Amino acid sequence: MDEYAVSYHEVAHTHMDTLCRMAWNGKMYNGFPQTDVTDGGAKKLAITNYKNGIFTRGVLFDIPRLKGKQWLEPGEAIYPEDLDAWLKKTGVKLEPGDVVFIRTGRRARRAAKGPWNTSRVARLYATCAPWQKSTMWQWWAAIPIRM
Question: Coil, strand, or helix at residue 106?
């Protein structure tokens, strides 16, 4: 799919979105018809399903602390080995439904050194995708946090 977008979340931030935003061949997630979404809203898979909030356990992965730093540098990658090392260091076991927060130290670096070209940010490397699937079983959210 191609997407043209304007991001209001700065860079390296995720947000929760609704499952009714994407469709393929007239079908949305779980086969619901795309026609269920009208100007009046979505019959299924709407963001309003979460209007009362979500309560679950959050697990912080402080990757700069793991590496003995205050922050990761722009363009520095986080690998599956880093995620495994953090779990080993903390003794935390991920469970279905956990939300994972990835700390890169981006804001700390900006405060200390000033802004930089934000096209290069510390991030999860592509090899983390299979790790996410095999480790998290059900639902994964990696949320870079401002610290």
Answer: helix
Query: From residue 43, how far is each of 23, 27, 39, 49 by CA, in Å?
Result: 14, 13, 11, 10
For 96-138, the pLDDT digits (tens) are 878 888 899 988 999 999 988 877 888 888 888 888 766 654 4
Taken as a whole, the chain contains a residue count of 147
The contacts of residue 146 (CB under 8 Å, 6+ apart) are 106, 107
Shortest CA distance to 27 belongs to which of 41, 40, 45? 45
Beta strand residue intervals within the chain, DSSP E: 37-38, 41-42, 58-62, 77-78, 99-103, 123-124, 142-145
Look at residue 62 and give its three-state secondary structure: strand
Of all residues in the chain, what percent carry a pLDDT higher than 70?
A: 78
Place of tokens 């260091």: 89
Regarding pTM above 0.85, the answer is no
